[in-house]
Amino acid sequence: MFETFSLPEKNHQVAVWMPCFNAEKWVSQAVESVLTQEGVDAVIILFDDCSTDSTASILRNLSEQYSNKIYISRPLVNTFKSGKKSLRMALLEMVQADFIAVLEADDFWNSSEKLRTSIEAIHKSGASACGHTVHVLGDNVRAAKYRGVIEAVSAQNSKIKFFRSQVFSPWRVATCSLVIRTEAFPFFLQNQIAKTLVGDLVIKLGILKSGPIEFIESPLATYRIHIESSWSSRSLVKRSISTGKTLLSLRKQLGVKRVAATIWYGAAWAMLSVYVSILFHFKARSKLYFE
User: Fold this and answer.
1) Does the structure show a pLDDT above 80 at 241?
2) Spatial separation of the C-alpha atoms in residues 130 and 123, rounded to whole Å
3) pTM over 0.70
4) CB atoms near residue 288 (< 10 Å)
5) How many domains does the chain have?
6) Can you give the residue range of the structural domain that contains 182?
7) Is 168's pLDDT higher than 60?
8) Is 101 strand, coil or helix?
9) What is the pLDDT of residue 265?
10) CATH number of the domain that 225 lies in?
11) Are 72 and 59 in contact (CB under 8 A)?
């Protein structure tokens, strides 16, 4: 099943799960942001999904340089195209670590204390996981709109209970910010995670079965939006349809009430996205008019 297979033999405090595909432009920055983490014992579990650019070569060089920190696995076929994404979960389930942190190869962490801060927050609160706000990087209009939504929600976090709700956590927590207790990782949903584009949403909802997700109001990571992304490059309509189907398919595993509440909150998030999009549209129109 694997062309390259490598996992650490002993337990570590944190295993940073980093899936990547054709990430030659960004993966070095992502890896570097993990290697500079202070005060934690962390290793990087890289899953190269049969990249066709120079990603494999870059990863090889990095693993040779940091042989005790970087572990690379590469399947024989692309799991996304072949429908065998469950291989990713099977690999991750074999990892020995107290915590799992998620960082896709086109994102990166801003602070060298990101992991330590997140773990301390989990220990202090007793939560199953921790996330935080993120910077949004991207020069296109889609990135600007997403920044607008994040800012609009963040502005309400301390005011309205609606936005502080645990059921709303999956919509607030960017995947690249997640640090999870390994025992709380929802491996029981691995088939659902493998079958959908919104696997990160399934993971976050599954975490809530074990306990709450702590949230830090500091942007300790950067989420990158670009046209090559399999998710952020899609339109709001396509993302909403895909998300709705996924949530409905989870009603048995997670309970009808939780899924129904999450759909409701997701609709609110979508409405907020539309509102911000309209503001951007009229702002652009008025700027064009006055110029």
Assistant:
1) no
2) 10
3) yes
4) 8
5) 1
6) 2-290
7) yes
8) strand
9) 63
10) 3.90.550.10
11) yes
